[in-house]
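User: Hello! I'm new to structural biology and keep hearing that structure can be predicted from sequence alone. Could you demonstrate with AAA family ATPase? Please show me the input and the output so I can see what each looks like.

Assistant: Of course. The first part below is the input, the amino acid sequence of AAA family ATPase. The second part is the output, the predicted structure written as tokens.
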Amino acid sequence: MSDWRIYRGAGVPHEGVRELPEPPPWRDFTGAGTGPDSPGGASGDDPEGADTARRLGARRRLVESLHPRPEEVEAVNAALYLRRPLLVTGNPGTGKSTLAHAVAHELGLGRVLRWPIVSRTTLQDGLYHYDAIGRLQDVQLDRAVAGDSSTPPARPPIGSYLRLGPLGTALLPARPAEPDRAPLPRVLLVDELDKSDIDLPSDLLNVLEDGEFTIPELERIADREPVAEVLTADGEKVRIEGGRVRCTVFPFIVLTSNGERDFPAALLRRCIQLDLKPPGDEQLAAMVSAHLGEEALEEGAELVQRFLRRQPGQVIATDQLLNALFLTQRTSGVERVTRDRLAEMLLRPLDRPR
């Protein structure tokens, strides 16, 4: 009987961690899982391709692996046509975030900008960050170095201390990917909006309606410095005129929610709403094949059926199933009771009381 354990709890140091196998494809951050057959055909040097492969599966093209329902396709197209955000609600693990990556991949819209929301997130976090303290420290340091010199130290450009957030970057004027072609929208994923404080959904209203925002720190000096060069969330430098950012092509924005709270009607009317159901038989089989291959679907048929036969209303995420399939495959040489115990641990319902 093989021992699959790396950590044995014996308290004796050893180098067993060097025998740790390759990670699951969706937890591979080296990009090694990407290639010609992965989504986008990206190489391991392409972080965009690596992220897409983790999200959509490294073994299959998107058209073979997603199988979205008609209502999902219709909601995405409605949001594209109307230039409105798509508010996607569903249980954890139903593929809400993956939908943004799927659209970006199929339409060739580049890297998905991700804005993860927590209870302390404010609108400005998504628009831009100004490092006022860093600028003040640099000015003081330059003065100290200059000493009694009659030549005043050069003032650092204010743009060096500004960086656009994911939402601010998505609202930049779009640039055509090719000459004589229409510019393309960016894709922005606003992840878990229901985790925000009570004000953020309302604070988003004007920005989502107008497609623009201002940077007061740049507006104040626009008469002296009409153009400032700042960093984007992608790490690129862009020029901003007059302290105002205004989109020319409204981005494709996906707002996700686990349904843990209600949103104001003013936000809901500005969004296309989609309730994402858990994956069905066909979708689940495609997801497993995309991430782990056809053999995993056959060998893990019992676990797949257990997932599909879960009680109505019981919350078990799809990635829990993928974790269980991956680990039980890697422990095929151990006794059945151990494998069952691992599957039970990994497939624990998220709504089960502790």
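User: So the tokens describe the shape?

Assistant: Right, they're a compact way of writing down the 3D structure. Reading them back into a model, for example: The chain is about 40% helix and 15% strand.
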